[in-house]
Amino acid sequence: MPMGAPPIEDGGVVVQDGMIVAVGKYTDLHSQFSSAIYHDLGEIILMPGLINAHCHLDYTMMRNQLQSGSGFTSWIQGLNKIKFSLEEEDVVTAMVQGWEELYSWGCTSVANIISFPRLLEKLPASPLRLWQLIEVMDIRGSEQGKEGLQVVEDFLKQNHKGDRDRKIKFGISPHAPQTTSQGLYRCSAGLAQQYHIPFCTHLAESEEEFEMFTQGSGMLFDFLKSFGRNMSDCGFQTPVQALLNNDLLPHGALLVHMNCLTAKDRELLTQRGNDFFIVHCPKTHRFFERAPFDWNFFKKNQYRLLLGTDSLASNDELNLFSEMQLMAATAPELAAKEILKMVTLHPAEALGMQGKIGELRAGAFADMITIPFEGRLSDVSQAVIENKTSPMIFYSV
């Protein structure tokens, strides 16, 4: 199942030194590469490893510790209480446990938000292709933002090589409009463009965020004001308007959640169709009991949709198959092959890795997974989405 091309019955993949050399019918490949070592995998679907477009691996220790139904602000307060009670070793252990769980469910690449870049040096080697998107915010004042940005820039100067073949890569993630000033957004976008790295932000996530920006009131407004946040940008606009009207989002930005949108927001987004990638996290969406995600608006306006697991602070597992299954259940009009693009082709493009991950083709990495299957060729996409087999069998050379 190449993803960038139709499924191939009795297909084969030629691999050398961890890279795909050729994809096609087995009989054709066998005659062309007669000296190659041959492995018959049996009745399976062979496809590219899945790509998780949004995750917080350092929250892996929070499984089942936070409950839904108490509101977004209360959830944040509970999350922070746990987060700041942890030692650095706890966070490192959590990240390792998180990527091992993702890997066991067929994920071979992940865009992870990391709040403490100093911990990167303490992490062991990961089986995943890992994008560490370094989080910045200035909720406690401009000095916090300046210091955070300097840490990111210093880190990128030391670690960013511009090499598409490196297994660990970096990006920047201004947290969200409620915690990040417009100035910090602008500087973050500049770094993303300078270093050609992914830019990700949480946007239009909750009703409480919406109330804070449009009404200048509510639980989140009061909570953030208590930190000394400058609230002068609240009371007259939506979070989407605050960023788009001030041109604070670079082309290709990953916008996570995008749940609460007004007619004016939709008008602005329609004008920017295909400029950004929209990341939906179905199980986290359900955890917060939010209104149905308007995937049809984004699809109609040529936005590419991606799926993520978010974190175990709002999810009970790190399993992209479960996310696809819930997406299919809540959007039955979507074809299975379109949902599969949300965990393969679309996130590969968002991460600047089109043709390298998310598909089986010559020149791509040999990040491949298998799923048992004995059905018809026309049913393979649906079979992948419905898969409940764990662990997956990997062929990462």
Distance between the termini: 18 Å
Strand order of the largest sheet: 4-5-6-7
CATH domain class name of the largest domain: Alpha Beta
Query: How would you sum up the global shape?
Result: globular
Radius of gyration: 21 Å
Judged by helices, strands and strand pairing, the structural class is alpha/beta
Total strand segments: 13
Biggest beta sheet attributes: 4 strands, parallel
Write structural notes for this entry:
The chain is an alpha/beta fold and 397 residues long. It has two domains: 1-48 and 358-397, Urease, subunit C, domain 1 (Roll), CATH 2.30.40; 50-354, Alpha-Beta Barrel (TIM Barrel). The chain is built from 15 helices and 13 strands. The strands form four sheets. It has a four-stranded parallel β-sheet. The protein has a four-stranded parallel β-sheet with strand order 8-9-10-11. A three-stranded antiparallel β-sheet has the order 3-12-13, with no helix packed on it. Strand 1 and strand 2 form a beta hairpin. The chain starts with 10 loop residues before the first strand and ends with a strand. The mean pLDDT is 92.
Write the layout of secondary structure elements.
Layout lengths: L10 E6 L2 E7 H7 L11 E5 L1 E6 L16 H12 L4 H17 L2 E8 L14 E8 L5 H18 L8 E7 L7 H14 L4 E4 L3 H9 L3 H7 L13 H6 L9 E4 L5 H9 L5 E4 L1 H6 L7 H6 L3 E4 L12 H11 L5 H6 L3 H6 L17 E5 L7 H6 L7 E2 L3
Short description:
This protein is of the alpha/beta class and 397 residues long. Helix content is 35%, strand content 18%. It contains 15 helices and 13 strands.
